[in-house]
């Protein structure tokens, strides 16, 4: 059953709502209208995710729906239809309560892998443009500047397009279980991206870094020069960069 948020949770939800409103500013090109969603994963089993149809640009703490992460994960494994998945999301009732985002399962999977924090899911125009040009792999595997490594780690996960909602959550869970997908940035071909960090502000920072790198790659063209892998490894392991990453509240390990 859904509990009232604790005082600590309430502050996290307030900060997440504030960050979501900032993220949705049109100049960022991250979302339009009701695109995107955000979740706050508190220690234990709880996940607070935005209600379906919510505009990030007007998000309020009361727009989050509290769910059980373990129940979502079990649902991803057990469900074989959209109707069954809807029952997991709604608890089997349409009785006037807000319905959580259909991507709640994806948030639960990443929360299971990456731990407590904030997950921001957006549909950034430059990232979509790069993937539409068949260059998503470059954004996932190549690192362009030192801060790209600091904030996004040495590589990101790139998923082929699958049906949003249950199928996307199933694919993400499979990759996590196979142990091939440890990253704080997941790129979703034909769909958007997801960023995880320890705070809402940092999740937006990571998102904006990915968008900046997508813009750089688009401007530089297909022959864009990436950092040599030896330099990427060096940046990733430097003590001073680990210190800066901790201050930025980014977990890009
Ligand atoms: Zn989406």
TrEMBL record:
**Could you say which EC number(s) this protein's record lists?**
2.2.1.8
GO cellular component term of the entry, any? cytosol
Keyword Lyase recorded? yes
> Which stretch is the leader sequence?
none
Question: What region holds the Class II aldolase/adducin N-terminal domain?
Answer: 14-218
Keyword Transit peptide attributed: no
Q: Which GO terms describe its molecular function?
A: aldehyde-lyase activity; fluorothreonine transaldolase activity; metal ion binding
Fetch the Gene3D superfamilies from UniProt. Class II aldolase/adducin N-terminal domain
Protein name (database record): Fluorothreonine transaldolase
Question: Which UniProt key words apply to this protein?
Answer: Lyase, Metal-binding, Transferase
Q: Name one Pfam family in it.
A: Aldolase_II
Q: Which organism is it from?
A: Occultella aeris
Which principal EC class is assigned to this enzyme?
Answer: transferase
One record GO biological process: pentose catabolic process
């Amino acid at each position: 059953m859904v509990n009232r948020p604790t005082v600590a949770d309430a502050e996290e939800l307030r900060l997440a709502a504030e960050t979501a409103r900032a993220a949705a500013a049109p100049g960022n090109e991250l979302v339009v209208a009701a695109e995107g969603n955000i979740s706050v994963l508190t220690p234990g089993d709880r996940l607070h995710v935005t209600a379906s149809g919510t505009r990030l640009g007007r998000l309020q703490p009361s727009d989050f729906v509290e769910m059980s992460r373990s129940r979502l994960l079990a649902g991803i494994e057990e469900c074989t239809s959209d109707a069954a998945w809807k029952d997991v999301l709604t608890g089997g009732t349409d009785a006037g309560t807000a319905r959580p985002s259909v991507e709640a399962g994806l948030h639960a999977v990443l929360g299971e892998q990456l731990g407590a924090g904030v997950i921001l899911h957006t549909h950034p125009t430059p990232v979509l443009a790069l993937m539409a040009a068949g260059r998503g792999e470059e954004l996932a595997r190549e690192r362009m500047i030192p801060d790209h490594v600091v904030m996004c780690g040495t590589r990101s996960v790139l998923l082929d397009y699958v049906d949003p909602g249950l199928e996307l959550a199933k694919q993400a869970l499979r990759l996590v279980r196979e142990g091939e997908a440890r990253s704080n940035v997941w790129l979703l071909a034909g769909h958007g991206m997801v960023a995880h960090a320890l705070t809402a502000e940092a999740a937006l920072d990571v998102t904006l870094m990915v968008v900046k790198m997508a813009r750089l790659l688009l401007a530089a063209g297909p022959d864009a020069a990436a950092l040599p892998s030896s330099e990427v490894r060096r940046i990733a392991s430097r003590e001073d960069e680990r210190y800066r990453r901790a201050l930025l509240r980014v977990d890009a390990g």
